[in-house]
Amino acid sequence: MSTTPRRLTAMSRLTVVPMLAALTAALTPSAFAADHGRPAADWQQLARIWEAGEPVPVSLVEALLERTGDTRWYSVEISGARAGYMSVSAALVDDGDVPRLRIETYVRIHFAVDGKTQQIAGHHIEDYNAALRPTRIELWRDTMGRLSQTSVSVVDPASLHVSVTQPDGTHERTVPLPPDFSSELMLSIAMLAGQVRPGWTATFSAFDPYSAMLDRYRVSVPDQAADEMGTLVYLAAEQAGVTMRTWIGEDGVMRRQALPELMGIAMQLCSREEALAPVVGPSLQSDIAVGTPEVNPHQAEQVRLVASAAGTDVATLIPELPYQHVEPCADGSALITISRHVPPERTVSLPISDAEFEQYLSPNEITQSDSPQIRELAHQIIGDETDAWAAAQKLLSWVYKSIGKLKSEPRPISAVEVLAQRKGDCTEHAVLLAALAKAAGVPPRIVTGLVYTNGSYGYHEWNELYVGEWVSMDPSWGKHVLGAGHIQLSSEAADADAILKNNIASGRTIGTLFLEFYPNE
Q1: Which residues of the chain form CATH 3.10.620.30?
Q2: Are 431 and 423 in contact (CB under 8 A)?
């Protein structure tokens, strides 16, 4: 049995750096400055027109672009080391009788995980209507050689059409369009109108094509907003659960944007030459060394660890769960007690179709439970079995025995792709089990966390399946019931949103979380 954990899930499934870049696109024009040679009343008129949702005169849009200048370049950093670049430009493009605003962004990221080089590249376009609201979003992405395209369009006043094309085909869905749908361009307009000052707040919804997720953002300016880098603005993403810090200079140009809570990810304004200079990227290690206890945690009834974290409280990183007790200490550290899991006491019959589990059973581009191959295979595996727990065990056993084990294959991948290649790391096992479980009527979750092996805890993914109660199961290790060697960080419905949220939960701990066995363990 392979006991190699998934290595650095959050970085190898990296979506956060491109997401940060995408959220920056509309923040870059030097049009942020106070007046830019135009009367303040013009910018205040622009803000009033924009807030009313009315067409913005082309002359005002052209004035914005006059101050944009050439393409702006940013250096991307991870843990204080250069990892790549982002470029962003804006222009008016012909669209019938009236030109429309287009913002175009390029991102390229390089880094290494446990000595293995990873690369991500993205080309992102946003087209705006006359009211300066996004009407079309396109993303072309190359993630370690896996190509994909995400297309988003406003089809009517109440709907967004989302199309994701990836190696297994095209997946389409319709998303309700919130009334405050917009982009960070609203911040540019507010800056021009003189609205952005300490205490100012605003909210808007936007679609991030890198995560294929619609999120709601809250913009706020702290009381002490100005420092040597410029004026600080907070941009908090509600669903992703992260807060970006943006510094805007006196000239209105974004100087820096950072996610200090997430591996020190940041972007810094620089010259084209600096951005395009050769970069090796940071080299990241994924293990948290703890040494060897007297009893292997996977055989122990209970394991206790002392956990500490740089710059935050452990209780914000590791959740309290039935088998995972978190006892916070005054200094921000915590005593973590992990207990051996037990088989479920109560099981139910298949299929499980209660409304509360609908979000867990819906097919998507990651877990394609509506695929004929997935549905047919799930039926073959469970046969006439109607007991949910028995079915879950059959599904896990098939995945464990049938999918080859890889130490790490750090590319985003879907269940249909896993089934075709018949090999993968823990993420591929968890994704395939989730899809098969959905097809069999068993609600799944994908879990990210840490697992003990050979003197350290490494990043890992597994599943929770609902069989009458939620049961933790590890398909890459063939575990129907877990011991005390897994530490859970996050558990979400098996879709693209879940993968992003799980990656963020892991990312918050990388380089900041430290573990040691409690004395006498």
Answers
A1: 340-517
A2: no
One-letter amino acid of 517? F
Any idea what DSSP says for residue 318?
Answer: S
- The answer to whether the Cα torsion of 376, 381, 385, 390 is positive or negative is negative
Adjacency order of strands within the sheet including 334-339: 324-328, 334-339, 302-309, 513-517
SS3 label, residue 261: coil
Classify the phi-psi angles of 187: left when phi > 0, otherwise alpha if psi is within -120 to 50, otherwise beta. alpha
The answer to whether the CB of 187 falls within 8 A of the CB of 195 is: no
What's 201's DSSP letter? E
Q: What stretches in the chain show pLDDT beneath 50? A: 1-15, 23, 25-36
Cis status, amide bond into 209, omega within 30 of 0: no
CB 338 within 8 A of CB 386: no
The b/e string for 375-399 (b: 16+ C-beta within 10 A; e otherwise) is bebbeebbeebebbbebbbbbbebb
The encoded tokens of residue 432 equal 């395939």
Q: Can you tell me the distance from the alpha carbon of 484 to that of 453, in angstroms, rounded to the nearest whole number?
A: 12
Question: Within 10 Å of residue 283's Cβ, how many Cβ atoms?
Answer: 14
Task: Give the separation between CA 21 and CA 267, rounded to whole angstroms.
Answer: 8
Who contacts 238 (Cβ-Cβ below 8 Å, separation ≥6)? Answer: 215, 216, 217, 218
Strands (E), 396-467: 404-405, 423-424, 444-453, 456-466
pLDDT digits (tens, 9 = 90+) for 244-297: 998 887 666 788 999 888 888 999 999 999 999 998 888 877 789 998 898 999
179's CB contacts (< 8 A; 6+ apart) are none
Nearest-angstrom CA–CA distance, 388 and 386: 6
Q: Which helix (H) or strand (E) holds 334?
A: strand 334-339
Of 308, 302, 382, the C-alpha closest to 349 is 382
Per-residue pLDDT, 8: 41
How is domain 340-517 classified at the CATH fold level? C8orf32 fold (3.10.620)
Query: Tokens 């012909």 appear where?
Result: 94
Neighbours of 189 (CB within 10 A): 26
pLDDT value at residue 517: 95
CA–CA distances in Å: residue 388 to residues 103, 295, 382: 50, 33, 10
Tell how strand 456-466 and strand 444-453 pair up: antiparallel
The pLDDT of residue 9: 40
CA distances from 191 to 134, 195, 196, 369, 503 (A): 19, 6, 5, 46, 33
The DSSP annotation for 123-180 comes to EEEEEE-TTS-EEEEEEEEEETTEEEEEEEEEEETTEEEEEEEETTEEEEEEEE--TT
User: Which tokens belong to 189?
Assistant: 């307009």
* Gap between the Cα atoms of 128 and 256, Å rounded: 25
C-beta separation of 397 from 481 below 8 A:
no
